[in-house]
Amino acid sequence: MKAFGFLSFGHYGHGRGPGDPDAGQALKEAVEIAVGADEIGVNGAYWRVHHYARQAAAPIPLLSAAGALTRRIEVGTGVIDMRYENPLYLAEEVAALDLLTDQRIAIGI
C-alpha cells in the first residue's frame, strides 16, 4: 500500500448531553488524532466541512493546528462547499496554510 489516510465522519453531538463533546473539545481531539496518525505513519488526515456545525465549520484553523503539530502527514478537507465561501479569502487562507505546512495540504472543493 502506498498511502493510507482517514476522513472524519459522523455526528458530533450538540455539547449538551453527558459525554457529548463541546466544539472546543471536538477540535482538540481532531488535532490529537492527526498527531497520533502522523506518529504511526498515516499519510493523510482529512476533515469534512459542515458549516453551521460548531466543531466543523472552520477548517483552516483546524488544518493549521494539525499541520503545526505534525511533520509528515498531509492535512486537508473532504469538501468545502463554495456556496458559503468568499473565493478570494479562502485562496489567501489556503495559500498561507500551504506555506505553514510546507505544502502538506490537500483541499477538496
What do these coordinates show?
This protein has 109 residues and is of the alpha/beta class. 39% of the residues lie in helices and 12% in strands. The chain has three helices and four strands. The chain has helices at 23-39, 59-69, 87-100; strands at 5-7, 44-47, 74-77, 105-106. Strands 1-2-3-4 form a four-stranded parallel β-sheet, with helices on one face. Helix 2 runs parallel beside helix 3. The longest helix is centred in the N-terminal third of the chain and has 17 residues, at 23-39. It starts with a strand and ends with a strand. 27% of the residues are buried.
Residue runs with pLDDT of under 50 for 5 or more positions = none
Report the β-strand fraction as a percent range.
Answer: 5-15%
Envelope shape: globular
Strand order within the widest beta sheet: 1-2-3-4
Helix fraction bin? 25-40%
Query: Which structural category fits the helices and strands?
Result: alpha/beta
* Number of distinct beta strands: 4
Largest sheet: 4 strands, parallel
Helix-strand sequence: EHEHEHE
Radius of gyration: 14 Å
The overall average pLDDT, rounded, is 87
Number of helices: 3
Q: How far apart are the termini?
A: 26 Å
Chain-wise SSE layout:
Layout: E1 5-7, H1 23-39, E2 44-47, H2 59-69, E3 74-77, H3 87-100, E4 105-106
Parallel strand pairs: 1-2, 2-3, 3-4
Helix pairs in contact: 1-2, 2-3
